Amino acid sequence: MLHGAKSLVVVIAGLSWSTLSRVGFGWFVAMVVVLALGATVLAVVSWWNTGYHIVGRELRIHEGLLWRRTRAIPLERLQAVEVVRPLLAQLTGLAELRLEVVGGGKTEAPLAYLGVGEAAALRQRLLGMAGRAPAHPPSAAVVPGGPAPRPEAAGRPLHAVRNADLLVSQLLTPQAFLLPFGVAFVVAQFLSEGSWSFIAVASTLTAMAGVLLQPVRRVLDDWNFRLAREDDSLRVRNGLLETRVQTVPLDRVQTVGVTWPLLWRVKGWLRLRLEVAGYSAGEPDDRNRPDRLLPVGDLSTGARIVAEVLPGVRLAGLPLAPPPARARWLRPLSVRVLGAGLDERVFAARSGLLTRRLVIVPYARIQSVRVVQGPVQRRLRLATVHADTASGGGAVAHHRDLAEAWVLAAELTARSHAARLAR
C-alpha cells in the first residue's frame, strides 16, 4: 500500500496542468484512477516477490517476478545502516533501512518497509556482523498491541538546533528574500493584462513552489536536528515528514566544510558539512548523504562541533595566509577573502565572496596533491594547489606564489605521509 501511494504521487505530479486543460476534469480523474490502480497492482506484485536473508557474511535480497534479481552485499564492506521513516511510514508504524557500502555508487538495497522494532533489530544485527555495532546500542523493544518504538539518537548529546533558528535561516536565503518581489511582479502582470484563468494562476503558483522548494526541503529535512557522539561515531537524527537516524563513523570523515552565506553573516551564523568516504557521493538525492553536521549555528557552536570531529583543531585559530597582491588580477573582488594555511593537524583553505567557504582537511585524509597553472597564472607566476581526498573532494589553495605553491605541495605530501604512518 505504501509503495502504491508513492507511485500515486509520482503519477499525479507527472500529469501537468496542460493535460488537465486538454482532457477536462472528468477524464483527468479517470486517468489518475487507472494509473493509480496499475501502480498499486505492480507494487503488490513487487512486494510479493521481494525477500531477504543472511547467508554466512552476506545479506542477500531477492526481487522480481519475470526477471529475478539477487543482490549479495558483503557485510565486511558495510559502513552504516540508516533507519529512515517517511511520513506514510510514520503513520503506519513502519521504517525503511538504507545500507551504505564502501565504494557504492548509490545507497544499496533499501529494505522498505519493516516494522520499527524489526528494523532496529536487523540494523543492530547487520552492524554487529560488520563489526560496527555501538558498545551500547539503543533498545527497540516492541510491546504487543502498543505503539511502535521510535528510533532515537543515542550517545552523548552534542547539540540540538532550535527550529526557530532553522526557519529564520531559510527565510534569509535568496529564494525567500526575493519571493515578495516576484509575487508583486506576477500580480502586476495579471492586473495589467486582465487574465486570471485557472491554468495561468495554477502555472504561476507551481513556478513559485519550485522557487521555494530548496528552502522548504531544508526546513523539513533538518527539523528537530539532533547531534550526538557515540563512541567513535556521530549520531544524527533529523526530519519532520521523513525522520532519519544516521551514523557517521569519524574514521571515515575526509573533510569538514564551513559555509557563511551572505545574509546569515548579519546574525553571525554558519553551516557545517562533512565529506565521508565510502558513502554514495553519486546519489542523485543529496538527502541520502550523511553530510549534515550543523544546519545553522553560531561560531562558538561550530567551533565546539569541529573540535569533536577533529580533536585539537580550533576553528577560529586556523592560520590562513592571503595570496600575493598580484592575484587581484584574477580575483579582483575576492582576493582579500582567499586564504590557505597549514595547521598542526589539518590543511585549511578559504574562498568565496558572497558565500564564504572554509574547507578543513586532516593530513591523514589527503590522497594526492596537485599543482595547477593556467596560462594567465604562468605570466603572473602564480599556481593553485589541490589537496584531494578519497571522497573526490578536498581543499584548494587558489593563486599562491609559484615558489610558495611548490613548497606548500611538498609540505602537504610530507605531512600526509607522516600522518598515515602515525595512525
Short description:
This protein is α+β, with helices and mostly antiparallel strands. It contains eleven helices and 19 strands.
Rg over alpha carbons: 25 Å
What's the count of strands? Answer: 19
- In whole angstroms, the N-to-C terminal distance is 50 Å
Task: Please state the structural category.
Answer: alpha+beta
Strand content: 25-35%
Count every helix, treating DSSP H or I runs of 4 or more residues as helices.
11
Order of helices and strands: HHEEEEHEEHEHHHHEEEEEEHEEEEHEEH
Tell me what the structure shows.
By secondary structure, the chain is an alpha+beta fold. Helix content is 37%, strand content 30%. The chain has eleven helices and 19 strands. Strands 6-5-4-10-9-8-7 form a seven-stranded antiparallel β-sheet, sandwiched between helices. Strands 13-12-11-16-15-14 form a six-stranded antiparallel β-sheet. A hairpin with a 4-residue loop joins strand 18 and strand 19. Helix 1 packs antiparallel against helix 2 (17-48). The longest helix has 32 residues, at 17-48. The radius of gyration is 25 Å and the shape is globular. The relative contact order is 0.08. Mean pLDDT is 83; it is low at 135-153 and 280-285.
Write the layout of secondary structure elements.
Layout: H1 2-14, H2 17-48, E1 51-55, E2 58-63, E3 69-74, E4 78-85, H3 87-91, E5 94-101, E6 108-115, H4 116-130, E7 156-160, H5 163-171, H6 174-193, H7 198-211, H8 213-222, E8 226-230, E9 233-238, E10 243-249, E11 253-260, E12 269-276, E13 292-298, H9 299-309, E14 339-342, E15 346-351, E16 356-362, E17 366-372, H10 375-380, E18 382-389, E19 394-401, H11 402-422
Antiparallel strand pairs: 1-2, 2-3, 4-5, 4-10, 5-6, 7-8, 8-9, 9-10, 11-12, 11-16, 12-13, 14-15, 15-16, 17-18, 18-19
Helix pairs in contact: 1-2, 5-8
